[in-house]
């Protein structure tokens, strides 16, 4: 696992060496959900530590920009987690995202793949994002997409090989929105609701694949402070319709634009 993480990190951080230098090195607006820039970040959560690495790359089109991000979540949970939910220092989950942005129309795309090591469940989805005209201090970015869910069978059955132990549970849709509320030039708020539901798949997935139900509304709220044009600190809260705010997931995250 350590070799895999090192290899993925090196691949992302060195990919620009093989691309032409067509992406301007100007400082990007870190409060913009569609901003694309090379970055590094890390933080502490109620279940452990997180690490984030992001790298822009050449799309061979001057009107578009692209970025890959890898996140490693929940390691050293026994030492640093404060809610008692983690009794191990190993990695809880990993996430890979690829962003693409068309600079001419404010339209973006996102490939999002996640894997949870505790439950051996994962997903991969592809979504489109559209920036709407600014309304005073508010920016809205509607999102819509679809994906697949994979992992160990929900019924707990196991086998001797990978094909026996893991299956594709089914497909799902995601509809939601990123939003930004500007307080001033250094402070902003984000509220990002997402609604996910089953499209097809096994009966177990269609009936209980999303927090024990056939669909779920998730919430993410963040308060951010920009220290400098390239550094910020962000406080996140994540919960869903079946989990009250106080029982959700919380994290503090520092981000640096390189």
Average of the residue pLDDT scores = 86
Rg, alpha carbons: 19 Å
Count of DSSP H/I helices? 4
Structural class: mainly beta
Secondary structure: helix percent = 10-25%
CATH superfamily annotation: monomeric porin ompg
CATH level-3 fold name: Porin
**Order of SSEs:** HEEEHEEEEHEEEHEEE
Keywords: Signal
Protein name: Lipoprotein
What characteristics describe this protein?
258 residues, mainly beta, Porin, 13-stranded antiparallel β-sheet, 52% strand, globular, disordered N terminus
Question: Quick gist of this model?
Answer:
By secondary structure, the protein is mainly β. It has helices at residues 2-14, 77-80, 162-165, 203-208; strands at 39-45, 48-57, 64-75, 93-102, 107-116, 121-130, 138-151, 167-182, 187-191, 194-201, 215-228, 231-240, 249-257. The protein has one domain (2-257): Beta Barrel (Porin), CATH 2.40.160.
Task: Describe, in plain words, how this protein is organized in 3D.
There is one protein chain. The chain is mainly beta and 258 residues long. The protein has one domain (2-257): monomeric porin ompg (Porin), CATH 2.40.160. 10% of the residues lie in helices and 52% in strands. Strand 5 and strand 6 (121-130) form a beta hairpin. It is globular.
């Amino acid at each position: 696992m350590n070799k895999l993480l090192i290899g993925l990190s090196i691949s992302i951080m060195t990919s620009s060496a093989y691309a032409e230098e067509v992406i301007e090195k100007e400082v990007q607006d870190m409060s913009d959900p569609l901003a694309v820039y090379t970055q590094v970040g890390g933080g502490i959560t109620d279940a452990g530590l997180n690490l984030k690495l992001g790298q822009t790359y050449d799309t061979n089109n001057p009107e578009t920009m692209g970025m890959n991000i890898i996140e490693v979540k929940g390691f050293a949970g026994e030492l640093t987690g404060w809610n008692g939910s983690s009794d191990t220092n190993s990695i809880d989950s990993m996430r890979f995202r690829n962003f693409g942005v068309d600079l001419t129309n404010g339209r973006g795309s996102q490939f999002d793949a996640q894997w949870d090591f505790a439950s051996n469940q994962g997903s991969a989805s592809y979504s489109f994002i559209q920036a709407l005209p600014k309304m005073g201090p508010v920016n809205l970015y509607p999102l819509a997409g679809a994906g697949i869910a994979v992992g160990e069978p929900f019924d707990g059955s196991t086998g001797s090989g990978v094909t026996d132990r893991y299956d594709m549970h089914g497909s799902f849709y995601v509809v939601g929105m990123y939003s930004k509320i500007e307080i001033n030039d250094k402070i902003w708020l984000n509220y990002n609701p997402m609604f996910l539901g089953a499209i097809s798949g096994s009966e177990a997935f269609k009936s209980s694949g999303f927090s024990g139900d056939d669909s779920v509304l998730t919430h993410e709220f963040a308060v951010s402070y920009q220290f400098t044009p390239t550094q910020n600190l962000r406080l996140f809260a994540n919960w869903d319709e079946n989990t009250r705010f106080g029982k959700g997931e919380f994290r503090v995250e520092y981000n640096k634009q390189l």
